[in-house]
Design a protein that fits this description.
By secondary structure, this protein is an alpha/beta fold. Helix content is 37%, strand content 14%. It contains twelve helices and ten strands. The strands form two sheets. Strands 1-7-6-5-4-2-3 form a seven-stranded mixed beta sheet, with helices on both faces. It has a three-stranded antiparallel beta sheet with strand order 8-10-9, with helices on one face.
C-alpha cells in the first residue's frame, strides 16, 4: 500500500525500522541503541564474527552442541581466519555446566549457547553460562530464537553480552527479520568488516570516500533493511505486548504441563526434561519414522514438526487445553509411531 500510494517513502520506512528496533529492545529490557535490525540470525552472527580478531591470544570459541546449525556453522567458518572452535557436548539430553567450564579459559573470546535447544526443547541456564564466560574474561552470546515470546527475557538480569533472535517463531512475525543485541559497553570496541550504508553514522550522507560506523549497534546492520518484513514483525511484537509476557508464560506452562502429563500417561517417551525450569515452550517426544507421523497429524489438522528423531510440539498462548486433547486423540490413532 505504501508503494502504491506514496512511491518510495524512505522517511516512513526508516521510522518503521526504528519502531521495530524499539519494540524488540523493550521486550528484552535493552536500549534501542543496543539493537541491530538484521534479516536473519545467520547474518547477525556473521557480522558479529567479522568484528573479532582471530589472530590474537583470545582466538577460541566455545560452541554448545545444542546450537542451531546456522549459528555453529558461522563459528566454524572463522577457522580459516585463525579461530579455534571447541564444542560443549550434551550428556543425557542436557549440557552440564562443567562441560562449559572445562573448555572456557583465558584463550576464550566467546561462548555461544542456545537458550532453548531446537531439537529437544531443553532450556539452558544462560546466566550461569555467562558467569562462567565472564570469570575467564570471555563474552557470551545467547541464541534466544526458541525462547523469545514465550518467557520474559531480561538481558541485564541474565548478564549476556550478545543476544540474537528472529521474528518467525513465537514473536508471530515473518521470516526475513531478526535482531542482534550488543551490550552498550562493547559496541565501540567492535568494528565489523561486514557493512553497508545503514551501518553508517549518517545513513543519508552518501559518502563513498569514508567508512564512519554508527556509534550504536546499528554498525552491525547492513544495507537496505527488510522493509516489508518490518510490518509483520511490528504487528507480531504488538500482539505479544498486548497479551503480556507474564500471561503468555503462564499459558505456555499450563499447556506444556498438560502435554508432558498426557505423554507420560500414554507411555510415550519424552525427549524433553519433565522439570518445567529445564525446558522451553517446545516439548519433544521420541518417535519412529517421525516425518511420516508429522504428515499424518497434519492431515488430521494437527500441526507439529520433527527434528533429530523427535516429534516437536510447540504450543503458544493462543492454544488451549482442548488443542492438547485433540493432539493426543490424534496420537492415539498412531501409537505405533511412538511406542
Amino acid at each position: 500500500m505504501d508503494w502504491e500510494t506514496l512511491g518510495s517513502p524512505w522517511e516512513l520506512w526508516v521510522a518503521k525500522l526504528e519502531q521495530a528496533r524499539a519494540k524488540f529492545a523493550a521486550l528484552i529490557n535493552a536500549h534501542p541503541d543496543e539493537i541491530a535490525v538484521v534479516t536473519s540470525v545467520s547474518q547477525a552472527v556473521s557480522v558479529l564474527a567479522s568484528a573479532f580478531d582471530w589472530q590474537g591470544k583470545r582466538n577460541q570459541i566455545v560452541v554448545d552442541d545444542f546450537s542451531f546449525p546456522a549459528v555453529a556453522q558461522v563459528w566454524h567458518a572463522q577457522a580459516p581466519q585463525g579461530a579455534r572452535i571447541l564444542h560443549a557436548p550434551a550428556a543425557d539430553h542436557i549440557i552440564p555446566l562443567e562441560h562449559y567450564a572445562h573448555r572456557i579459559d583465558d584463550r576464550t573470546a566467546l561462548v555461544s549457547a542456545a537458550h532453548v535447544c531446537y531439537r529437544n526443547g531443553v532450556k539452558q541456564d544462560a546466566a550461569a553460562i555467562a558467569r562462567l564466560a565472564h570469570a575467564q574474561g570471555a563474552w557470551m552470546l545467547l541464541d534466544a530464537y526458541q525462547s523469545l515470546g514465550t518467557v520474559p527475557i531480561d538481558v541485564k538480569e541474565l548478564d549476556v553480552d550478545f543476544l540474537v533472535g528472529g521474528a518467525l517463531k513465537y514473536l508471530l512475525g515473518s521470516s526475513g527479520l531478526a535482531w542482534l543485541y550488543v551490550r552498550r559497553e562493547l559496541i565501540e570496541q567492535l568494528t565489523p568488516t561486514s557493512g553497508g550504508w545503514f551501518t553508517q553514522a549518517n545513513i543519508f550522507a552518501m559518502d563513498i570516500h569514508h567508512h564512519m560506523p554508527s556509534p550504536t549497534a546499528r554498525r552491525f546492520e547492513a544495507g537496505t533493511p527488510p522493509v516489508p518484513n518490518l510490518y509483520a514483525g511490528i504487528a507480531g511484537l504488538h500482539i505479544v505486548e498486548e497479551v503480556g509476557m507474564a500471561a503468555i508464560a503462564e499459558q505456555v506452562q499450563t499447556l506444556t504441563s498438560s502435554i508432558k502429563a498426557n505423554a507420560l500417561r500414554c507411555g510415550y517417551q519424552l525427549a524433553t526434561p519433565v522439570d518445567p525450569e529445564r525446558h522451553g515452550a517446545l516439548i519433544a517426544m521420541r518417535a519412529h519414522q517421525v516425518d511420516g507421523l508429522v504428515k499424518r497429524l497434519e492431515q488430521m489438522g494437527v500441526i507439529t514438526s520433527s527434528r533429530d528423531g523427535n516429534l516437536r510440539i510447540s504450543p503458544h498462548f493462543y492454544n488451549s487445553l482442548e488443542d492438547v486433547e485433540r493432539l493426543f486423540a490424534a496420537l492415539a490413532q498412531h501409537r505405533d509411531f511412538l511406542i
